[in-house]
Design a protein that fits this description.
The structure holds two protein chains of two kinds. Chain A has no helices and eleven strands. By secondary structure, chain A is mainly beta. In chain A, strands 2, 4, 5, 6, 9, 10 and 11 form a seven-stranded mixed beta sheet that branches. In chain A, strands 1-3-8-7 form a four-stranded antiparallel beta sheet, with no helix packed on it. In chain A, strand 4 and strand 5 form a beta hairpin. By secondary structure, chain B is mainly beta. Chain B contains no helices and eleven strands. In chain B, the strands form two sheets. In chain B, strands 2, 4, 5, 9, 10 and 11 form a six-stranded mixed beta sheet that branches. A five-stranded antiparallel beta sheet of chain B has the order 1-3-8-7-6, with no helix packed on it. Chain B is globular, with a radius of gyration of 13 Å. The N and C termini of chain B lie far apart (40 Å). In chain B, 39% of the residues are buried. Classes of the chains: A mainly beta, B mainly beta.
Chain lengths: 112, 113
């Protein structure tokens, strides 16, 4: 069974731009969560989607948003990029919300 | 504010010995507990999950949970150099997975040949 895939793997953007990251979960998994990982803050929860509904959101500004499609694929968007948004963005999928989460390889975003 | 605390290390263990990693969490309502391994430059890899008090064994790994003490641990027996990595403890909140996982900062484990 194929794992979680994320595209693109690497991205360089300029301050003020916006970016969209994509995640395809493991086949059959309906829950998709997004995390931001930085050296200083570690792994932090962004939001979780289940059956196209955002069920919870972490402590991030409204510039961070996401959505989930009917095939469980998910996208996250960051608008008006700031230098501090430079991070590894990780997507994780699980069969149901309370089950084990499996991470994709991540998208490394650099904001200059 | 949910918190998960881990000793950042580095924790240095001789090859073949038992590595013991510890984690405490603040949310008494936490329901599910996970250990992830993360190699440098890679994404976290799930190695163990535990949901009820006691021990759970999987190969060389044993997870231990004590909800009364709000304490989770991971034992790695017969440690190998390939076990050298950062180990992340993660817990769900009282809302389950919909609250997302709260991660500790990780313990850097070094297995010395």
């Amino acid at each position: 069974k194929a794992g979680v895939t994320q595209t693109p793997r690497y991205l360089i953007k300029t301050r003020g731009q916006q970016v969209t990251l994509s995640c395809s979960p493991i086949s059959g998994h309906r829950s998709v969560s997004w995390y931001q990982q930085t050296p200083g803050q570690g792994l932090q929860f962004l939001f979780e989607y289940f059956s196209e509904t955002q069920r919870n959101k972490g402590n991030f500004p409204g510039r961070f948003s996401g959505r989930q499609f009917s095939n469980s694929r998910s996208e996250m968007n960051v608008s008006t990029l700031e230098l501090g948004d430079s991070a590894l963005y990780l997507c994780a999928s699980s069969l149901l919300s309370d089950y084990e989460q499996y991470f994709g390889p991540g998208t490394r975003l650099t904001v200059t | 504010q949910k918190e998960v605390e881990q000793n950042s290390g580095p924790l240095s263990v001789p090859e073949g010995a038992i590595a013991s990693l510890n984690c405490t969490y603040s949310d008494r309502g936490s329901q599910s507990f996970f250990w992830y391994r993360q190699y440098s430059g890679k994404s976290p890899e799930l190695i163990m999950s535990i949901y009820s008090n006691g021990d759970k064994e999987d190969g060389r790994f044993t997870a231990q949970l004590n909800k009364a003490s709000q304490y989770v641990s991971l034992l790695i027996r017969d440690s190998q150099p390939s076990d050298s990595a950062t180990y992340l403890c993660a817990v769900t909140g009282s809302g389950g997975g919909a609250d997302g996982l709260t991660f500790g900062k990780g313990t850097h484990l070094i297995i010395q040949p």
